[in-house]
Design brief:
10 helices, 8% strand
C-alpha cells in the first residue's frame, strides 16, 4: 500500500518501501529543485501519477527505466534491483534522472498544457526532429537543459544522506571542499552519446590541465567509493 496520503499521487510499491532508495527519495523531496519535480505529481487535481518500484528492468544493464504507459496509467519508474548496491549519491542521481524523465512525459502528454508546458513541447519537438528514430530525444533534452539543475539538487542533498559520516568522503577525495563539477559529473551519467556529451568529450586541454572528459571520469570513480548509507 502507498505510504503517502490518499491525495498524493506518487506511489511506492512494496519493493521500494523502507529501502535505502526510499530513504534517499525522502531526503530529495526536501530539496527545492527536486521537490518542485515531485509536486507536479502530488495533490488533488494533478493529472498524472508516478509509481516507484525496484525490480527487473527490460534492459538489465541500466540503472532504471521510466515508462509512460498511457492515459490513466501511472508513469512507472523501475529501479534495477541489480544496481541498488551503489553509493547513496549514485542512487540519488538515478532517482533525479528518472524523475526528470517522468516530468518530460508529463509535460508532453498533459491534456491541458500550461504556457510553460507548451514552450517545453516546442523545444522538445526540435529534439524529436533532430534525433528522429534514435530514441535519444529525452536524453538530448536533459543534457542541454537539466545538467546544471540536476547537479545542484545532488549537491544540496549529499550531506543530508548520512550527516554523521559525510565528511569522510570529502576528506578522502576533496579535502578543499567538494567542487560543483563533482555533482555535474554525476548528472552527466546516463547522458553519454548525446550531442552535448559528444561535443564536450571532444574538448582537449593543455598538458598542464585536465580535460572535461577526464574530470568526469575521475569524479564518477570517486562517486563509486562514496558512502552507501542514508540515515
Amino acid at each position: 500500500m502507498p505510504t503517502l496520503l490518499p491525495e498524493d499521487q506518487i506511489f511506492k510499491d512494496p519493493s521500494f518501501e523502507g529501502t535505502t532508495a526510499d530513504c534517499i527519495y525522502e531526503k530529495l523531496k526536501s530539496i527545492e529543485g527536486f521537490g518542485g519535480l515531485a509536486s507536479k505529481f502530488e495533490g488533488l487535481g494533478t493529472e498524472f501519477d508516478v509509481k516507484l518500484k525496484i525490480g527487473q528492468t527490460q534492459n538489465n544493464t541500466v540503472n532504471a527505466e521510466t515508462r509512460y504507459k498511457g492515459v490513466g496509467q501511472p508513469i512507472e519508474i523501475t529501479f534495477n534491483q541489480g544496481k541498488m548496491n551503489r553509493s547513496a549519491i549514485q542512487v540519488g542521481r538515478t532517482i533525479v534522472h528518472e524523475m526528470v524523465h517522468a516530468e518530460m512525459y508529463r509535460a508532453i502528454n498533459a491534456a491541458n498544457p500550461t504556457e510553460v508546458e507548451l514552450d517545453f513541447r516546442e523545444t522538445f519537438n526540435a529534439y524529436v526532429m533532430m534525433y528522429r528514430g534514435s530514441g535519444d530525444q529525452q536524453h538530448n533534452a536533459m543534457a542541454n537543459e537539466w545538467v546544471t539543475e540536476m547537479g545542484s539538487i545532488l549537491s544540496d542533498v549529499h550531506q543530508q544522506l548520512d550527516p554523521a559520516r559525510s565528511n569522510s568522503f570529502k576528506n578522502l577525495f576533496y579535502p578543499n571542499g567538494i567542487p560543483d563539477h563533482f555533482y555535474e559529473s554525476l548528472a552527466w551519467e546516463g547522458l553519454e552519446g548525446t550531442l552535448a556529451w559528444n561535443l564536450m568529450q571532444n574538448i582537449t586541454a593543455p598538458s598542464t590541465m585536465v580535460s572535461p572528459k577526464d574530470v568526469i571520469a575521475q569524479d564518477l570513480r570517486n562517486a563509486e567509493a562514496g558512502l552507501k548509507n542514508c540515515n
